[in-house]
Amino acid sequence: MEKIPVLLDTDIGSDIDDAMALAYLLKQPKCDLLGITTVTGDVQQRAALAEVVCRSVGRSHIPIHCGRRDVLVHGVGQPRVPQYEAIEHVPRHLNRPENSAVEFLRHTIRSRPGEITLLSIGPYSNVALLFAMDPEIPFLLRSLVSMAGIFYGGDRREWNALVDPTATSIVYGAKRKDHLSVGLDVTEKCRLGAEEVRRRFVGEPLHTVRTLAETWFKQVKEATFHDPLAAALIFRPEICTYESGQVVTEITADLNQCGHTKLVPGSGPDRVAKTVNVDMFFKEYFEVTTGAK
């Protein structure tokens, strides 16, 4: 079986969907997960969460690197990692080198030109620094896949895009060859209630993810599979339909306006997910993570 090499850039520990996406990648037989980088806020705690999920399936060897804590210029940021409280009682590392993520991404991508898919499911701070440091990187990737933006949902803004709007603008303004953005207006169609998650998240790593989810469920009584959908499209692109063109975003002095994303249809390096087959997605997710048909 040919495996797709994947690098994951994540803000695991805020919304529960990052951990759900990591669980999928760990169980996907077509995925060669080369490493994980964390971004925004307490990146040490986020790295510890990724470590615990990986260890639940005996994958402690996967490299995990800490990235950018702060926004590049201005933005709302994301300092807290609420799900960390769920693992405070288990062994975990909190002493990883700081700011090693971007160089790890750069070195790994350059070592395997044209092979690696970079999956970005957090704010774009690490990816923006990577592209600014080495403008050839977007052309050395097999593909860039992001859970970011809103393209068919009116005037709303999506969290990953607005947390660090300068980084968002750098990424969408960079010269690049293939960028798939999976927007909130599509991902929010993939939801399960808390009780359904508790019932279906059995076996590892889903059992560990379910434990993390209990912190999330104190505030929100459902889980939306934003990031798992983006991850699944790397291996099952037929789950969604797409539209091509150029994604544009703007930076303004008014933080209430930063982070808007818009697709200009036509030629360009961007594809955005337009519709999703929800049943096909959930079938794929649970067949991979639990073996359930």
Description:
With 293 residues, the chain is of the alpha/beta class. It has a single domain, classed as Inosine-uridine Nucleoside N-ribohydrolase, Chain A. 37% of the residues lie in helices and 20% in strands. The protein is built from twelve helices and eleven strands. It has helices at 17-27, 43-55, 101-111, 125-133, 137-140, 159-163, 165-173, 184-187, 194-200, 206-217, 226-235, 278-290, and strands at 4-10, 31-38, 64-66, 117-120, 143-147, 179-182, 191-193, 222-224, 240-249, 261-265, 270-276. A nine-stranded mixed sheet has the order 3-2-1-4-5-6-11-9-10, with helices on both faces. The chain has a two-stranded antiparallel sheet with strand order 7-8. Strand 1, helix 1 (17-27) and strand 2 form a beta-alpha-beta unit. Helix 1 crosses helix 12 (278-290). The radius of gyration is 17 Å and the shape is globular.
